[in-house]
């Protein structure tokens, strides 16, 4: 196999953070998949290739299916992903990073709390919380949409599902961010130490909460998982890693898509007017926010056998990068793909992935978005951007604005 070397793909650059979509378009214009040496990965950028990979049962997330313990240890060392006892126990292993029977067993234990019916029951509680947040903004006519609003909602709601007391949720957000940051670009020892220390603190916190729920079960996910462990459906480490994953998975991503969704409405003011005039469009508008700026644009898979994609055979063990952010802008799948269309139908976007690992929290994320944007449009008059440029986070694995100052009139 002769990897291509002439690639102008710079996912860690400031230019990419500003606007990754021309880079993605250039990738899609190339034949087949593209080898990206820096990450040693074959990139799939077209919607059909991305879907094909994540729907293939011979594609897995965990290295264990294709490599022995020594090779895995060497790879971890090369990525500075080693010597992290708690991080490797509870973060590097998870429901998301397991496959086959282990994955199915773990997903089954928590799935029932995330169905549309169960999530729908949370609507009134989320609305009440969001109302108090908006009340706290009374008297102001300018805010940072991210820091003052978006950042407070997802962790708080997931915390409630899990059974974390409200007053502890801000701390969980900090732990969660400091652990997740180590998944992306900068694998320095300093960031590594922070990720391990915060995983340890998070672990101790969950141990304490678990002991409390064992003594006094409640109607929450923690109590449900305690019962699952008692019945032998998950072990202690799986319990902790699942609780951590659920608290972390929907945190940053929901904050990011709230920010980029708001930004999209500001960039396409006619779509915001359309949504104000017809609030029934909120469901399709939220779907479009996920398509337009997938907040988790990049994941990976390993092939467990030789596979043929785009006329080329890839050997067992090949690592593929699936670019959800690019697939969602593929004009072959979405007409006028770079346009934000609040009423886009159909809209089979892939921001939540597809196949075995399809996002567990997708209904919850959509409900959060629906409630926040519906409340925003009801409470605020004409909304405008109150900063000259909006800076997006750097990196390939996340997409979202760092801050987003908005102002409004009281029409
Ligand atoms: C903006 C919101 C969200 C986005 C864009 C998102 C996206 C994703 C994606 C793309 C995957 C699949 C990863 C892959 O293909 O390898 C995934 C998995 C997952 N998500 Fe989400 N997610 C969001 C919110 C949430 C929330 C709120 C929760 C909380 C419950 C959550 C929990 C999970 C879990 C547990 C998995 C692993 C599922 C499995 O492996 O079976 N996500 N998410």
Mean pLDDT over all positions: 94
What best-fitting shape do the alpha-carbon axes yield? globular
Neighbour order of strands in the largest sheet = 1-2-8-5-3
Residue stretches low in confidence (pLDDT < 50, at least 5 long) are: 1-5
GO molecular function: heme binding; iron ion binding; monooxygenase activity; oxidoreductase activity, acting on paired donors, with incorporation or reduction of molecular oxygen
Function: Cytochromes P450 are a group of heme-thiolate monooxygenases. They oxidize a variety of structurally unrelated compounds, including steroids, fatty acids, and xenobiotics.
Protein name: Cytochrome P450
Family: Belongs to the cytochrome P450 family.
Outline the fold blueprint:
Blueprint: H1 14-18, H2 21-29, E1 34-36, E2 41-44, H3 47-55, E3 59-60, H4 69-78, H5 85-90, H6 100-111, H7 116-120, H8 123-135, E4 142-144, H9 145-149, H10 153-162, H11 169-180, H12 189-215, H13 221-230, H14 236-249, H15 251-267, H16 269-277, H17 282-292, E5 298-303, E6 307-309, E7 312-314, E8 319-323, H18 324-327, H19 362-379, E9 383-385, E10 405-408
Parallel strand pairs: 2-8
Antiparallel strand pairs: 1-2, 3-5, 4-10, 5-8, 6-7, 9-10
Bound molecules: protoporphyrin IX containing FE.
């Amino acid at each position: 196999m002769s990897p291509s070397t002439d690639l102008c793909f710079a996912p860690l650059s400031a230019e990419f953070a500003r606007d990754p979509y021309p880079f993605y378009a250039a990738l899609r214009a190339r034949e087949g998949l593209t080898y990206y040496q820096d990450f040693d990965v074959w990139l799939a950028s077209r919607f059909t290739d991305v879907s094909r990979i994540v729907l293939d049962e011979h594609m897995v997330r965990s290295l264990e299916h294709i490599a022995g313990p020594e090779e895995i240890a060497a790879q971890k060392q090369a990525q500075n992903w080693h010597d992290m006892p708690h991080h490797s126990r509870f973060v590097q292993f998870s429901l998301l990073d397991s496959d086959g029977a282990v994955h199915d067993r773990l997903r089954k234990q928590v799935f029932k709390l995330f169905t549309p019916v169960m999530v729908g029951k949370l609507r009134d509680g989320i609305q009440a919380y969001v109302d108090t947040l908006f009340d706290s903004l009374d008297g102001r006519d300018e805010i940072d949409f991210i820091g003052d609003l978006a950042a407070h909602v997802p962790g708080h709601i997931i915390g409630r599902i899990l059974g974390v007391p409200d007053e502890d949720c801000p701390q969980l957000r900090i732990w969660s961010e400091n652990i997740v940051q180590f998944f992306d670009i900068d694998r320095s020892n300093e960031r590594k130490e922070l990720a391990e220390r915060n995983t340890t603190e998070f672990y101790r916190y969950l141990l304490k909460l678990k002991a409390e729920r064992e003594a006094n079960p409640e109607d929450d996910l923690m109590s449900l998982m305690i019962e699952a462990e008692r019945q032998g459906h998950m072990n202690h480490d799986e319990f902790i890693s699942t609780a951590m994953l659920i608290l972390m998975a929907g945190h940053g991503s929901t904050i990011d898509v709230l920010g980029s969704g708001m930004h999209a409405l500001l960039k396409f003011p006619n779509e915001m007017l359309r949504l104000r005039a017809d609030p029934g469009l909120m469901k399709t508008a939220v779907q479009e926010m996920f398509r337009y700026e997938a907040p988790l644009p990049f994941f990976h898979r390993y092939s467990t056998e030789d596979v043929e994609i785009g006329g080329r055979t890839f050997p067992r063990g090949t690592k593929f990068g699936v670019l959800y952010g690019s697939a969602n802008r593929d004009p072959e799948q979405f007409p006028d793909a770079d346009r934000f269309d609040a009423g886009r139908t159909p809209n089979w976007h892939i921001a939540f992935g597809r196949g075995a690992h399809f996002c567990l929290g997708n209904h919850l994320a959509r409900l959060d978005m629906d409630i926040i944007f519906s409340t925003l449009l009801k409470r605020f008059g004409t909304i405008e951007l109150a900063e000259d440029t909006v800076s997006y986070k750097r990196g390939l694995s996340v997409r979202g604005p760092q801050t987003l100052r908005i102002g409004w009139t009281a029409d």
